[in-house]
Amino acid sequence: MTWLPELAVAILAAVLAITLHEAAHGYAALGLGDDTAKRAGRLSLNPLRHVDQVGTILVPAILLIGQLLTVGRVEFLFGWAKPVPVNIWALRSPRWGMVLVAAAGPAMNFALAWLSGLAVHPLEAWGAWLSNDSLAWGYRFLALSILANLVLGLFNLLPIPPLDGGRIVAGLLPAPLALPFMRLERVGILLVLFLIFLLPRLAEGIDPVGWVLGHVVARAFDLVLLLSGNGSGT
Asked: What are the residues whose beta carbons fall under 8 Å from the beta carbon of 98, sequence distance 6 or more?
């Protein structure tokens, strides 16, 4: 059961990334005039308040266990939480307020990725007082935290409703275009799941997620290491 510690740190990194992503939406909405999330009890750092049975438990568990049993390590994390309720018409500026609320989640993830990179330095400083195993797992947790936050933040910026990127695009579009664009929300999550799970199996050589992991996320990971004073990561 040597994969159990890997599973534990991967779950912890993913839960923190998802929880703080959703809390950021709620606090941004509150700051812009909408207290819907507060009244619903979603302004919370308690992960249980944000759990979606499929997106937070089932899908990540399948991915984590599948990777640990096949390749012995975690290379990709994906999941989602219950969306924080936002009343767009309660925001002081409904159009731009929704853009800011949507952007708050990915912004939180990018900040957490950077903070995880910064945390490498005190961990190195404390290395003399830690066992080799503790130090190794500390580094592994920080690496997975950077990865989880980058994947979650960048994934949510895809311009597909109901992802944050779709809401940002809707806020930037003129009303005649924004309304029909937002109607895609009814099928948006199905489109996302098709791109991730079905398309690579239906069309050999076409793997959008693999491309993103190999290019965008990998380069973003190196950028986080550079901005946090850990070199380029290459």
From this structure: 86, 88, 91, 167, 170, 171
To the nearest 10°, the Cα dihedral for 7, 107, 81, 143? 0
Q: What angle do CA 118, 124, 125 make, to 5 degrees?
A: 100
Q: Sign of dihedral through CA atoms 30, 34, 39, 43?
A: negative
Question: Which of 6, 22, 75, 185 is flagged as catalytic?
Answer: 22
| Count of all residues that appear for the chain in the document | 234
Respond yes or no: is residue 22 known to be catalytic.
yes
End-to-end CA separation in angstroms for the chain = 31
Please tell me what DSSP assigns to residue 89. Answer: G
Q: What is the CA radius of gyration of the chain?
A: 19
For residue 90, give the nearest of 159, 38, 162 by alpha carbon.
38
Closest CA to 80 of 65, 64, 58: 58
Cα maximum dimension of the chain: 62
- The span from the CA of 89 to the CA of 98, in Å, is 9
List pLDDT tens digits, range 6-60.
Answer: 778 888 898 899 889 999 999 999 999 999 999 988 888 888 888 888 777 787 7
